[in-house]
Structure formats: structure tokens, C-alpha cells
Amino acid sequence: MAASDKVQELHVYEMNERDRGSPAYLRLSQKPVNSLGDIVPFSNKIYRGDLEKRIGITAGMCILIEHKPELKGDRYEAIFSFYFGDYGHIAVQGPYLTYQDSYLAITGGSGIFEGVSGQVKLHQIVFPFKIFYTFYLKGIGELPEELLCKPVDPHPAVEAAPAAKACEPHAAIANFTN
Amino acid sequence: MASTTSLKPIPSINLPSQSHRALASNFSYSKPFPFHGLNLSSVTETSSFTSSRSSNPFTTTAFFFNKFKQEAAPHTPKPTKVQELHVYEMNERDRSSPAVLKLSQKPVNSLGDLVPFTNKLYSGDLQKRVGITAGLCVLIQHVPEKKGDRYEAIYSFYFGDYGHLSVQGPYLTYEDSYLAVTGGSGIFEGAYGQVKLHQIVFPMKLYYTFYLKGIGDLPAELLGKPVPPSPAVEPSAAAKATEPHGSIPNFTN
């Protein structure tokens, strides 16, 4: 494989700990059922895939596209970023389906992620509080050791390590985004 | 729709003197670089480019070349050309912008508030009107200790007949930030990289430095010597008046 195609995997847990006022469900459609017109800004915490380090936050919005009654869920178009403290950020766009996994496009990044391309797999564990992401990153240098880990397998009871939750210095990256 | 817009009287925020989060420039990685890894040093063709690492798609020949060089010295792969583009975004209060939609329905800036906006865009030397910005800021959180806010910004820069650049990333009203260049059209088709946002006067004057990759040489018209940002900067009279010599062809309006 040519170096330019080198793919690096990065694992991240997104957790809604209900302390960021998120999500903000804007029922602009003014309809009783989720409908096109509803917009959902959100921001949650993100942890390294082994749940031992607090990394930062997600920030962005979901645009409700369609309610899927037969699947008891919704399709959103999601546009948001993952913030990795001093390392920079990764911007993504794509489908968020509340009833199944999906792949979003990586549209770009900054800092160590400047020039990044690829896709990210979204795996929902507990809607809408726990999501596990696997990034397939191309076009950037070697990821720092600190971000790489053996991920914890996603299951409903996963929780961030207490030290990471408390953002203790050894359990958080430098200037983690908050 | 003037009724939906209000330029809230915003207290002038004391911005830290050009400080910004130090990103890649100050990193030291603990892992030595394998020969096929990508370099960290800013290998670019622009003198003032310090804040970003260049990512280098390797050609096959470069791959083998580096294999030979492995023992000789830390390898310096062929750099991806980075072009700097400087622009000024000015809110001249004549585009009904921004439209602060307090959808959170809370008195303080809160998640849920949305801010569509569009401002005028001038070349970095402030001699030519090039077009406009257009897009959306999503309020993420109010940051009381910084007396400001974090937004997630998703918008484009329009350059008339030349095309446009799209960006996504953080807009912090209290400090500089880097946004991702997500793509472009026209001469910017295939563009990638990042852009530094520097706020001069919140929220009326912003100065951007694009670090663009993946495109051909930018036209001279867009590459005039930039005016260093300061609170009193103003576009030239001809640019403001969009006279023919003070604007690019079919500047976006």
C-alpha cells in the first residue's frame, strides 16, 4: 500500500452526561411527530476508545430528515466536529440513523488533522447517550501515542473511567476541549 | 427581513493579543517516525507558515527514494504545495446580518441558538472586493470565564467568478481558531487544508489566512501583500464602492 493510502484507525466514545444542556431539540416543524424542519444542535463529551482519557467534545447539529415509523427511529443529516484539545479537530458530515450504524464523511480537520480525509463509522450503543466511533483517517501523519489504544468493546453499560470523568491531569489530554 | 435580525449591542471584548491555541507547531511526538511516515516540520513554500503540518501524499517514486534515504538523514519528503490566501471579512451592517435566532429561548446564549450570517469579503490587501461569506453559526456554549461563546461554524467564502471555499470548525468569540477547509468550487475545486480565523473587532472585522492544498496557482489578483490586521483597517474607497478596478469580475454580492 502506498504511503498516501495509509489508513489510521482512531476510536472514540461520545457520551451525553446530561450536563451540557444537550441536545436542544428545536421543533421548528411545529408538528407533533419528528418532521423535516426540526433541528437539533448538540454537544457531548468524547473519551478515548479505552475510556481512560477525556479528549474533548463533539459540537454541531443534526437536521431531522425523516421519521421512520416502521423502524421506530429517525434519519438525520449530521454536521459536526470532534474536538481533540490542543491536537485540533475533525469535521464530519453524513447520516445519523437512530436505528442503525452509519458511515459519515470526514470533510476536514485542523492541527494534527489538517488535510485529513476518510470516513468514520458511527455505532450507537444507547440512544442517544452513548455512541462509539471508529475513524478511518487518511492523509495525515502518525497519530500520537496518546490517542491510540485498545478500545473497550461497546456495550450498554460502558462508562468512562472515574479519573477520566473527573478530568484528572493523567486522565485527560492537554487542554482537552470542554 | 429586518424584523428577525438584531445586531445586539455587543460589549467590545478585549481579545488577547493575537494569542491562539498553539496547535501542531509546538508538538513533540514520542514516537520516532518510520521511514514511510509523514513529516512534522512545516515543509512548505511560504515563509510565514508555521502553524500547520503538511500532509504529503507520496508518489511511488518518492516512496522508494525515501527508502534509500533512511539511513542518511531524517527524510524530507516532497512537500505538498501550500498556498496562503488572505482575506478580510467585514460586517458593514447592510446585509441584515447576523440573524440571531434565540431558539433556546433562554436569556443567556445557549445551545439551541442559531446565527445565520453573511458579510462582505475583501482581498487581504484591502484593495478589492471579492465577494461574501455565507453560512451558519451554531451556538454550542457560553464561556463565562472568557466573556464569550463557542460556536460551530459552517459557511462558505464566495469569490465571484473564481468559485468558493467551504469551511467548518470552531468560532470562539474570545480567541483565534483554525477551521477545516472542507472543499471548494471553480479554481478552488479539490481544495483542502485549514484556515486561521483572527478576530480583529468582534463581530465586525475578521482576518483569515487560508493554507490551501490541492489546487493550482492562485491568481495574482488574490495575492496582494496583505495589510496587517488592526482595529482601524478599512477597505480602500474603490473596493468599498465596488468600482471596476476595486473589485474582481462578478464579485459575489
Automatic annotation (TrEMBL), chain A:
Q: What is the main EC category here?
A: isomerase
Q: Which InterPro entries match?
A: Allene_ox_cyc, Allene_oxi_cyc_Dirigent, Allene_oxi_cyc_sf
* GO CC annotation, single: chloroplast
Catalytic activity, per the record? (9Z,13S,15Z)-12,13-epoxyoctadeca-9,11,15-trienoate = (9S,13S,15Z)-12-oxophyto-10,15-dienoate
The question of whether rRNA-binding is a record keyword is answered with no
Q: What is its main location?
A: plastid
Checking Gene3D superfamilies in the record gives:
Allene oxide cyclase-like
Question: Superkingdom, according to UniProt?
Answer: Eukaryota
Family assignment from sequence similarity:
Belongs to the allene oxide cyclase family.
PANTHER family cross-referenced by the UniProt entry: ALLENE OXIDE CYCLASE 4, CHLOROPLASTIC, ALLENE-OXIDE CYCLASE
Q: What is this protein called?
A: allene-oxide cyclase
Q: In the record, what lineage is assigned to the organism producing the protein? A: Eukaryota, Viridiplantae, Streptophyta, Embryophyta, Tracheophyta
UniProtKB/TrEMBL annotation, chain B:
The Swiss-Prot or TrEMBL record annotates one GO molecular function as: allene-oxide cyclase activity
Q: Name one GO biological process term.
A: jasmonic acid biosynthetic process
Question: Which EC class is the enzyme in?
Answer: isomerase
State its Enzyme Commission number(s).
5.3.99.6
Q: Which InterPro entries match?
A: Allene_ox_cyc (IPR009410), Allene_oxi_cyc_Dirigent (IPR044859), Allene_oxi_cyc_sf (IPR034871)
Q: Where is this region: Disordered?
A: 233-253
Reaction catalysis annotation: (9Z,13S,15Z)-12,13-epoxyoctadeca-9,11,15-trienoate = (9S,13S,15Z)-12-oxophyto-10,15-dienoate
Q: Which UniProt keywords apply?
A: Chloroplast, Isomerase, Plastid, Transit peptide
GO cellular component, as recorded: chloroplast
Asked if the Swiss-Prot or TrEMBL record annotates the protein with the keyword Chloroplast, the reply is: yes
Q: What is the annotated localization of this protein? A: Plastid, Chloroplast
Task: Report the leader peptide range.
Answer: none
Record flagged with keyword Translocase: no
Q: What is this protein's function per UniProt?
A: Involved in the production of 12-oxo-phytodienoic acid (OPDA), a precursor of jasmonic acid.
Q: What protein family is recorded?
A: Belongs to the allene oxide cyclase family.
Q: What is this protein identified as?
A: allene-oxide cyclase
- Annotated organism of origin: Gossypium arboreum
